[in-house]
Amino acid sequence: MLQRLNHVALAVPDLEAAASTYRAMLGASVSAPQPLPEHGVTVVFVALENTKIELLEPLGENSPIAAFLAKNPKGGMHHLCYEVVDIVAARDHLVASGARVLGDGEPKIGAHGKPVLFLHPGDVHGTLTELEQV
Ligand code: CO
Predict the structure, then answer these.
(1) Which of 16, 54, 106, 130 is catalytic?
(2) pLDDT at 61
(3) How far is the CA of 128 from the centre of ligand 1 (A)?
(4) What is the pLDDT of residues 88-116, one digit of tens each?
(5) Using the 8-state DSSP alphabet, how is residue 75 labeled?
(6) CA 98 – ligand 1 centroid, Å
(7) 38 is catalytic
(8) Given this model, what pLDDT does residue 110 score?
(9) Which segments of the chain does DSSP mark as H helices, in order?
């Protein structure tokens, strides 16, 4: 069911500082910041040869990463995203296997304009897991 690793998302308290670290210290290619108000984050993409890293900073009230940063004030790994071919088939298999899908259980259009869903970290050994149909 799982295909490629699409991205690793890191929550950071200061996106400008984090982008600068990845660009200047780590020598990576970093995109311009992209505000995504409907997702409650501002994101930059760090392009790697085999995947990408997303740096996420809270945007607005009720950001989905605010609670994570309250617990991890310096930032940290927020979720992994794997590609799947058919997200509804994947969801049905996961639900039948006892996994909880966050929200109403229906795929949503994610930060890349593709359908995504998130699995409860408690059902995946502690890691928030995103699936994206590519
Ligand atoms: Co993601």
Answers:
(1) 130
(2) 87
(3) 10
(4) 999 999 999 999 999 999 999 887 889 99
(5) -
(6) 22
(7) no
(8) 84
(9) 15-20, 66-71, 87-96
